[in-house]
Amino acid sequence: MQNPQLASIGNRLLAQIIDGFLIGCLTSLFLLPLMGIGMLNHSSNFSDDPYMLSCLFTPVILPYIFAIALGPMLYDTILLASAKQATFGMMLLKIQVVTTDGNPLSWGASLARALIKYITFGSCTILWLWPFFNPSKQALHDLAATSLVIRKT
Question: Which of 9, 68, 75, 130 lies at 20 to 30 Å from 51 by C-alpha?
């Protein structure tokens, strides 16, 4: 790709904040009904019975783990591998993710990018400062997927 206009770190951060808000809302919409179902199914006095307490939260724990851990990765993977090449936050800010030669990300590259992005966010957030020291403004997940975040033309 010849001289792409790279997205600013500020735009990337703002897109991530917007996406985090959207993912949080979607996760809440998914989990709140499950919590209500658990309470309706076990509306008796569960505070005296540890088994009843575990039954209340069991229908919520696994979907919660799925939604919190895998939801953001699926969101990024699906949207970045789509024709738009951007998450909803990126679309609002008119930025997109492409390979270093300007092509759309493959499903595999999109998945690898999302996995590394969320694993490093959860385990070593300081790696998210990498774009400040990289001339192509690439974070570790961009380097792994050989991708760039660019301004849409």
Answer: 68
